[in-house]
Design a protein that fits this description.
575 residues, alpha+beta, Butyryl-Coa Dehydrogenase, subunit A, domain 1, Butyryl-CoA Dehydrogenase, subunit A, domain 3, 3 domains, seven-stranded mixed beta sheet, two-stranded antiparallel ribbon, 19 helices, 55% helix
Length: 575
C-alpha cells in the first residue's frame, strides 16, 4: 500500500476536519509542533514506509520466519529495515525527549503505524508493542529499571513483548500459573510457559524485553494475584537469560512475524509496579496496543481498497447499465457500492482513531481537570469500540475488496489474499472483539448507568443534524432501559454486547462523517476542482449502505430488552 497515496487525505482529515494542530499546540509539550512540521514528519514517514517496508510484504509472507534450536531468523531484509527504522528515530516519535524520544503528538505516531500495518503487517508486529511497553515501564518501573531499560525501549533499540497468555488459560488471565520467586538481591526467578507471544524471539535487535504476568508465592488466586515482571532476553554484562523459545506457530497469516511459545526456566526478572497489581500496570500497555490494533484494521482495509480500486480502473467486463460496449468494472454499480462503502469506513474510522489519539494527549497534558476527565472518558469508552469495529471491517472489508478481483483475488500473485489472511488475527488478539464488547457495555457503560456515554454523546463537537440527534437519543434510551432490564436478567448484557458496540460505532461514525461533510463544505471554495467530490461518494455510501445497520441493531436490542423486562422467575414450589 503506497502510503503516499493516502497522505493528502490524511492531511485533510487532520488539518481541516479535526483541526488537530490547534488542539495539540494548546498542550505545553507540543506548543512548538506546528502544521508544517507535522506535514514534514508525515511526508518523510510515507517515504520510509513505501521504500523500506512495503517491498518486504511478499517475502515476509512467502519465506516467513525460520525456527532452529531456539533461534528465530526473520525473512530477508527484515533486520536491515528494522535497524533503519529505529536508527531513524521512528519508534521514538511520541516518546518524551528526556527518554530519548522526539516528543511529538500521539496522532502522528498513529498515522505512521496505520501506514506500516497496511504496507507490511507482519513486519510491523515487531515494533507494534514498543510504545505500550515504554509507557508501562515509564509509569510503573523502579528508577533502577528505568535507568537500564527505558531509553532502549523508547528508541526501539530493544524490542519488547507482552507475555500474558498460557495454553490452559486463554483470555482468562485469572488462571495464569507462571510463578516468580523473590531473591535476596531484589530480583525474582520466573518459571512457566507462555503462548502466542509475538516477537518472543527474533534477530531484529540485540535484546528483547519481556513483560511477564506471574504470581508471587503469597499471591491470592484469580486476577488480583497477578504481578508484572521485566525479564530480559540478555542480562546486564551480556549473559543470556534462561528464556527459551520452544517453537513458533504455523499460522493462517502474519508469516513475517514469529508467534512464539516461550518457556521461562528460573529466568531472572524484576518486579514492575506493586505486588499483585500487575494487571493495572499491564493495562497501560494493552490500552495503547488496542488503539494501534484498530489502526491496523484501517491500514489493512486501505491497502485492500487501493488494490481493488486500481484493479477496477483497469479491468473491463461486460456492459455497465447504459453503456454501449464493455465497461471498466469500476463503472458497474455493484463494484462502486463495494468500493465506496469501504471508503466510508476508512475515512470515518480515521477521524475517530485520530480524534482518540488527540484525546490521549489531552488526557495527559490538558490544563483543566474537566478537560482531562472528558478526554479520559472518551478514550475509555471509544477504544474498545475502535478495536472491535475497525478490525471487524478490516477483515470483512478486505474480503469485499478481494471480491472485486473475482477469481484473480483468490490467486496469490495479486497480493490481496494475503491482506485478508493477515487481517483476520486483529479480531482476536489484544482481547477478542467479543471481550471488547463486554468491556464496553458491562464494565464501562452499565457501571454508571450509562451516564458517561450520555455525556460523551452530548459533548460531541460540531453541528448535529436532526436525524443524527435522534439516533443519539435512541442510543441513550436503549442504554437506560438496558440497565433496568439487566437487573431482571443478569445475562442480558452479555447476549447483546456485540449489538450494542456496533450501535455505538455507527453513531460515532455518523458524527465523524458530519465533521468530514462540514469541513468539505467549508473548504470547497478554495479546493482544487474535483477535490470536494472526493468525499461525496463515500459520504453517500455511509448514509445508504452503512448507517441503516443502526436500526437493525437497535431493533435487536429493544426486542431482547423487552423479553428481559417481561421475564419473571418461577416461584420455587415448596415440598
Amino acid at each position: 500500500m503506497p502510503a503516499c497515496q493516502s497522505l493528502a487525505d490524511i492531511q485533510f482529515l487532520l488539518t481541516e476536519v479535526l483541526r488537530a494542530p490547534a488542539q495539540w499546540q494548546a498542550l505545553a509539550p507540543f506548543a512548538d509542533t506546528d502544521a508544517d512540521l507535522a506535514a514534514q514528519v508525515l511526508d518523510e514517514a510515507a517515504k520510509f514506509v513505501d521504500s523500506a517496508v512495503a517491498p518486504l510484504q511478499r517475502v515476509g509472507d512467502e519465506v516467513g520466519c525460520q525456527f532452529s534450536a531456539g533461534t528465530v531468523t526473520t525473512p530477508p531484509g527484515f533486520r536491515d529495515a528494522y535497524q533503519a527504522f529505529w536508527q531513524g528515530g521512528w519508534p521514538a516519535l511520541a516518546c518524551a525527549p528526556e527518554d530519548g524520544g522526539q516528543g511529538l503528538p500521539a496522532v502522528l505516531e498513529c498515522v505512521l503505524y496505520e501506514w506500516l500495518a497496511g504496507a507490511n503487517h507482519g513486519w510491523t508486529m515487531a515494533p507494534g508493542l514498543v510504545h505500550g511497553a515504554y509507557e508501562c515501564i515509564r509509569h510503573h518501573a523502579s528508577d533502577a529499571l528505568k535507568a537500564q531499560y527505558l531509553e532502549k525501549v523508547a528508541t526501539g533499540e530493544w524490542l519488547a513483548t507482552m507475555c500474558l497468555t498460557e495454553a490452559h488459560a486463554g483470555s482468562d488471565l485469572g488462571l495464569v500459573r507462571t510463578r516468580a520467586v523473590p531473591q535476596p538481591d531484589g530480583s525474582v526467578r520466573v518459571n512457566g510457559s507462555k503462548i502466542f507471544i509475538s516477537g518472543g524471539e527474533h534477530d531484529l535487535t540485540d535484546n528483547i524485553v519481556h513483560l511477564v504476568l506471574a504470581r508471587l508465592p503469597d499471591a491470592p488466586a484469580g486476577p488480583k494475584g497477578l504481578s508484572l515482571f521485566l525479564v530480559p532476553k540478555v542480562l546486564e554484562g551480556g549473559a543470556r537469560n534462561t528464556v527459551v523459545c520452544e517453537r513458533i506457530e504455523e499460522k493462517m497469516g502474519l508469516h513475517g512475524s514469529p508467534t512464539c511459545v516461550m518457556r521461562f526456566d528460573d529466568a531472572t526478572g524484576w518486579l514492575v509496579g506493586e505486588p499483585h497489581k500487575g494487571l493495572a500496570a499491564m493495562f497501560v500497555m494493552m490500552n495503547a496496543a488496542r488503539l494501534h490494533v484498530g489502526l491496523q484494521g484501517i491500514g489493512l482495509l486501505e491497502a485492500a481498497w487501493q488494490k481493488a480500486s486500481a484493479y477496477a480502473a483497469e479491468r473491463r467486463q461486460m456492459r455497465a447499465p447504459g453503456a454501449k460496449d464493455t465497461s471498466l468494472i469500476q463503472d458497474h454499480p455493484a463494484i462502486r457500492r463495494t468500493l465506496q462503502t469501504q471508503r466510508a469506513w476508512i475515512d470515518g474510522g480515521r477521524v475517530l482513531a485520530y480524534h482518540t489519539a488527540l484525546q490521549l494527549d489531552i488526557a495527559k497534558h490538558g490544563t483543566e481537570a474537566g478537560e482531562r476527565a472528558a478526554a479520559q472518558r472518551w478514550c475509555a469508552l471509544v477504544t474498545p469500540v475502535l478495536k472491535s469495529a475497525l478490525t471487524t471491517e478490516g477483515f470483512h472489508g478486505a474480503s469485499a475488496c478481494l471480491q472485486v478481483f473475482g477469481g484473480h483475488g483468490y490467486v496469490r500473485e495479486w497480493g490481496i489474499e494475503q491482506i485478508v489472511r493477515d487481517a483476520r488475527v486483529a479480531m482476536i488478539y489484544e482481547g477478542t472483539n467479543e471481550i471488547q464488547a463486554i468491556d464496553l457495555l458491562v464494565r464501562k457503560v452499565l457501571a454508571d448507568g450509562g451516564q458517561g456515554l450520555a455525556a460523551l454523546l452530548a459533548g460531541l463537537p460540531g453541528k448535529t443534524p436532526a436525524a443524527a440527534s435522534a439516533r443519539r437519543h435512541a442510543l441513550v434510551e436503549i442504554t437506560q432501559t438496558l440497565a433496568i432490564a439487566a437487573q431482571s436478567d443478569p445475562e442480558l448484557p452479555y447476549w447483546v454486547a456485540d449489538d450494542y458496540l456496533r450501535a455505538v460505532a455507527l453513531v460515532l461514525l455518523e458524527w465523524a462523517w458530519c465533521q468530514i461533510g462540514n469541513a468539505s463544505r467549508r473548504t470547497h471554495g478554495r479546493a482544487p476542482t474535483g477535490e470536494a467530490d472526493r468525499w461525496t461518494a463515500p459520504a453517500q455510501a455511509f448514509t445508504q449502505w452503512v448507517l441503516p445497520e443502526f436500526d437493525l441493531r437497535a431493533a435487536i436490542l429493544r426486542q431482547r430488552i423487552a423479553q428481559a423486562l417481561e421475564f419473571k422467575p418461577k416461584e420455587v414450589c415448596s415440598a
